[in-house]
Amino acid sequence: FFRRFRIAPGVHLNLSKGGVSMSVGPRGLKATSGTSGRRFTAGIPGTGLHYTKVAKPGRSGSRAAGAVAHSPEQAEPIRTGFWRNLGTSAEEKAFVEGVNSAARGDDQAAAGHLAKARGLPDADFLAGVLLIGNHRWDEAALLLRSAHEAGDKLGWLFGKYGANVSVGLAISDEISVQVGADRIGVLLCLVEVYQGLNRQADAIACLEELLRLAGGDVVVQLSLAEFLMETRPAPQDRCRKVVSLTQETQNVSELHAALLLYRGQALRDLGLPTAARDALTAGLRRRKDRRPEILNALRYERGLVYLELKQKQRARRELETLYAADPDYEDVAERLGLESSG
After folding, report:
1. Taking the CB of residue 17, how many other CB atoms lie within 10 A of it?
2. 142-164: per-residue pLDDT in tens?
3. Please, is 320 exposed, middle or buried when counting C-beta atoms within 10 Å of its C-beta (0-12, 13-18, 19+)?
4. What mean pLDDT is predicted for residues 176-181?
5. Would residue 101 count as lying in a domain?
6. How far is residue 113 from each of residues 87, 96, 102, 129, measured CA to CA in Å?
7. Which residues pair with 179 in a beta bridge?
8. pTM of the full predicted structure?
9. Can you tell me whether residue 205 is helix, strand or coil?
10. What is the sign of the dihedral through the CA atoms of 139, 140, 141 and 142?
């Protein structure tokens, strides 16, 4: 038996063996919690992190990511147990009821129970994630900040009941990266919330704290680079940050290839097309285990760089290759003089 249903804009619940699995996904954010553990599909060499590739339907360029698929399993609620229940606080019981209500698809009941557990880091985290699904950014920010201030206590209750929680952030069109219910996970959620509130300075502050906590992790680097390069052409100070951040990046995984894409974009926006070409070429050097969306984005950017370098034949060859792979990609058809008459 497997059941998956929508409970709010951008929020889905998966019921599977061992308990609750919840997916939350505005603007590419995907959160998954479940008693059966974290949902990882591939490792990132040298980091200890994992990521899930997300199939993206439709035209390239959209930031919306698809949901991560899970195997059908039987759902079971989490329980306090009789003897444990005798010494369990009212707040903790409310947390358990909140998790189970969310599993049943009753988000209003879940919110009510979690409100009674206010102050418990895991309850605040879960309530904040549910609010993200409804784009209730201010309330989500308040709860997630409370969870963040708890430090290492965050995740303790989930662990006590064997209900691990993982949050996946779609930091590119086709990749969702899984992180835990910990300081890194809540900071990434806060970045999403602050972007929803258009509080750019607060989002950058969270990303800089992430760099201090785990600056060597490609997930953190890619999250920051994606944020800094979201608007093109990017301001020069942001471009310089991305160039500095990606200085030693090698193309050892799909995430690193995406990081090289942002490096190439930053160098191009700084008016350094030759350096941009080199970064993009490095990103294209390995194509095995790379999704077409990543390769197409690299090709498109390199085609534009070739145009800036006055290498028209190379630019056209790049764009023709891209058109053959994805005729609807950005403005490739227009650049090739192949606009639809309709």
Report:
1. 16
2. 999 999 999 999 989 888 877 66
3. middle
4. 65
5. no
6. 19, 8, 10, 15
7. 167
8. 0.68
9. helix
10. positive
Domain span including residue 275 = 229-335
| Nearby residues of 111 by Cβ (< 8 Å), 6 or more positions away | 98, 127, 130
Give how far Cα 81 sits from Cα of 84, 101, 104, 169, Å: 5, 17, 19, 34
Strands (E), 9-125: 11-16, 19-24, 29-34, 42-43, 50-53
Please name which of 163, 15, 161, 164 lies closest in space to residue 81, comparing C-alpha atoms: 161
Alpha carbon distance 236, 159 (integer Å)? 44
The percentage of the chain sitting over the pLDDT mark of 90, rounded to a whole number, equals 42
β pairing state of 164-172 and 175-180: antiparallel
Residue 106 belongs to a domain: no
Cβ proximity of 242 and 262 under 8 Å:
yes
d(CA 102, CA 13): 8
Ranking 58-72, 127-141, 185-199 by mean pLDDT, the lowest is 58-72
CB 51 within 8 A of CB 41: yes
| Cα dihedral 178, 182, 184, 187 in deg (nearest 10) | 110
The pairing of strands 42-43 and 29-34 is unpaired
Q: Which of 175-189, 222-236, 239-253 has the lowest mean pLDDT?
A: 175-189
Q: Output the domain CATH number for residue 283.
A: 1.25.40
Total tally of structural domains belonging to the chain = 1
Q: How many C-beta atoms surround the C-beta of residue 14 within 10 A?
A: 24
Phi, psi torsion values for 36, nearest 5 degrees: -85, 0
pLDDT tens figures, 196-244: 899 989 998 998 898 898 878 887 888 889 889 988 899 999 999 999 9
- Summarize pLDDT for 90-117 with one digit per residue, the tens: 999 999 888 777 667 677 898 999 999 9
